[in-house]
Design a protein that fits this description.
Keywords: Signal
Largest sheet: 2 strands, antiparallel
Organism: Cognatiyoonia sediminum
Structural class: mainly alpha
Protein name: DUF4856 domain-containing protein
Order of helices and strands: HHHHEEHHHHHHHHHEEEEHH
Distance between the termini: 54 Å
Pfam family, one: DUF4856
Length: 470
């Protein structure tokens, strides 16, 4: 306990020093509080920072993932699907926070979503373009609804006949289709236009913040970083997400973690995870966080005036830094889980007939791989041929124990499985996928790098011509 108190005191002291330095140059080093700059405002608000709606959606996502694993194989499917849809599509009732929740000494301040922000849902902020990575040529929202329905009918979120881990698929896809898409294809794109949510007008009637202030705040909220991230190491941020280091999370020392400002959610967590565990040094978390803070300082400096061309150019540059690094984080995840699935296939071979546990691990990692690959396709940029190649290599479903995999839907809407692939051939595709992430996205962390096996495996399968590495 003494160690925890001392650690918390150190964090609070470092934040106080950062605040003092910020006051000296007029620039914040934490994300908020920011002063009121809206001209003509006469209310009693003193902080223009606002991104609680985005944090509420992170909580809805985390809770939805938990629910995805609560099916009993069919008898509770209807009830569970309705519950999942309340978190995805919205509910007239306030919803309990299923995750993240208090765990031992890690005390979470809020227990209901409405304590963060009311009336929010995921579906209304979900990518709704075509998602060709999933069978059926469906929109992003329809893919998510299909996943939710299947999760509710499954046993503990797993369908062994298809190899689908529904919690992982739903979660990782949502991190892209909601958080990444909204940030880079809306708030850091369209809403940076001079006439879209201008800085010399309130964001909406009665608001105490300007259009550009709130637009930038909302983009930050979707990243899911704690406001005091610049005072944290990658290990610290990782531990906060895992609910394992209360001292570094409780930045203000009030005895509870405020999900609105002190928690680390999915996108920021994965940025931290690659910074702390990569084969090469990366700084995704701090780079993205600093760009967000620098951008907010540019807007604050405008003091409620319309942004100049130079100020907007600075924001566009910072938005590009955020998007590029966030895209790389998603590509790093595809790289990592391609390596995980590659190793899982070796573990399946070693397990022989006693392979139930190894198969479950394989399916989990494949769900993460597929979900992140879909997240990567949910951004502002059309990935074109890269997306086609990625989807062809990953397939619609993982090769199952009889080497068949999902190829589409039948006329009744059931998954079809009418092709087979050898384990070694699929491993080669996974290595080609890792190489694709290097070639097209320049991934640097490269967790679970298995590329040393690429040339040898290609040669052993007589496929060297399809596995170019230059």
């Amino acid at each position: 306990m003494l160690k925890s108190i001392l650690k918390s005191t150190t964090i609070v002291a470092s934040l106080a020093m950062a605040a003092t330095a910020a006051m000296a140059d007029g620039h914040a080093q934490t994300y908020g509080p920011f002063p009121i700059t809206l001209q003509g405002y006469e209310g009693d608000k003193t902080d223009s920072t606002g991104y609680t709606g985005q944090i509420a959606r992170h909580v809805l996502h985390d809770s939805l993932k938990k629910l995805a694993g609560q099916g009993d194989g069919g008898s509770n499917a209807e009830e569970l699907e309705a519950q999942m849809l309340a978190y995805f599509s919205g509910s007239d009732e306030d919803l309990p926070i299923i995750a993240p929740a208090t765990k031992g000494d890690f005390v979470v301040a809020q227990t209901m979503v409405g304590e963060i922000s009311g009336g929010k849902n995921i579906e209304g902020k979900f990518y709704n373009g075509l998602m060709p990575a999933w069978p059926g040529a469906m929109s992003g929202v329809d893919v998510a609804l299909n996943m939710i329905s299947n999760a509710a009918a499954s046993n503990a979120g797993f369908s062994p006949e298809t190899g689908y881990d529904w919690g992982q698929l739903i979660s990782k896809f949502t991190m892209g289709a909601m958080a990444y898409n909204q940030a880079v294809d809306n708030y850091l794109d369209e809403k940076l236009g001079a006439d879209n949510k201008p800085n010399n007008a309130p964001y909406s009637d009665g608001a105490h913040y300007t259009g550009k202030e709130h637009s930038w705040d909302e983009a930050f909220g979707y990243f899911g970083a704690a406001a005091h991230t610049l005072a944290l190491s990658a290990d610290d941020a990782y531990a906060i997400n895992k609910l394992s280091d209360f001292a570094v999370a409780d930045a203000n020392g009030d005895g509870a973690v405020d999900l609105r400002t002190e928690m680390v959610f999915g996108p920021a967590y994965y940025a931290a995870s690659f910074d702390r565990a990569g084969t090469q040094s990366t700084d995704y978390l701090q780079t993205i966080m600093q760009a967000y803070i620098d951008g907010r300082n540019v807007i604050t400096d405008a003091n409620g005036e319309a942004l100049t061309d130079d100020q907007r150019a600075q924001l566009v540059s910072l938005a590009s830094t955020i998007e590029d690094n966030w895209e790389q984080v998603l590509a790093e995840a595809v790289f990592k889980y391609a390596g995980s699935v590659y190793k899982d296939i070796n573990a399946l071979a070693e397990a022989g007939d006693d392979n139930a546990e190894a198969y479950r691990t394989y399916a989990k990692h494949w769900g993460e791989l597929k979900g992140f690959s879909m997240a990567l396709q949910s951004g502002r940029n059309n990935l074109g041929e890269t997306a086609v190649t990625m989807n062809d290599l990953i397939l619609f479903g993982p090769p199952t124990l009889d080497n068949s995999y999902v190829t589409g839907f039948d006329s009744d809407g059931n998954f079809e499985m009418d092709r087979r692939i050898t384990w070694n051939d699929y491993q080669l595709q996974l290595l080609q996928l890792q190489q694709l992430m290097v070639d097209k996205f320049g991934v640097q962390s490269r967790v679970n790098d298995q590329l040393a096996d690429l040339e040898g495996l290609a040669e052993s399968l007589g496929s060297a011509s399809t596995a170019e590495t230059d």
